[in-house]
Design goal:
The protein contains two helices and four strands; from the N terminus they run ββαββα. The chain is of the alpha+beta class. It has one domain (about 10-134): Phosphatidylinositol 3-kinase Catalytic Subunit, Chain A, domain 1 (Ubiquitin-like (UB roll), Roll). The protein is globular, with a radius of gyration of 15 Å. This is Ubiquitin-like domain-containing protein.
């Protein structure tokens, strides 16, 4: 069984036009992230964020997109332990995620994975289904 073709989208609902304090950020201090859920390429999306965005805010954005999740892991470029973005209080810039760090297509790939929180009693929607509907 083959996977659905990659659908490219720009999720502007998650674009942040300012820094953590709400100040306007110019384009040279932003970076476009190509967000890739491990083994689910049809949920890939792009988001442009200020380099001052904290990792915890990126994770919150993903929780908003996917619903209730557990053990959310982010990695820069590819899903490997040495590439993991562990410290949630660090910013994208602290991890070297800056416009100058982009590869050929001017985007930085962030791979992520999570464990869905599934409960029969839960009123939360299924994380995977939620991401498809968005």
């Amino acid at each position: 069984m083959s996977r659905p073709a990659h659908q490219e989208s720009n999720d502007s609902d998650f674009d942040i036009g300012g820094d953590e304090d709400g100040n306007k950020v110019d384009a040279e201090n932003t970076v476009t992230l190509n967000m890739k859920l491990l083994d689910w390429n049809f949920t890939d999306f792009e988001v442009t964020l200020p380099i001052s965005t904290k990792i915890c805010n990126v994770k919150n954005m993903l929780r908003q997109k996917h619903g209730k999740v557990d053990k959310l892991v982010l990695c820069k470029w590819e899903f490997r332990q040495e590439n993991e973005l562990i410290d949630e209080l660090k910013t994208l810039a602290d991890y070297g995620i800056c416009p100058g760090d982009c590869q050929d297509d001017q985007r930085i790939t962030i791979c992520y994975n999570f464990k869905p929180v599934l409960s029969i009693a839960s009123k939360e929607p299924d994380p995977i289904l939620l991401s498809i509907m968005n």
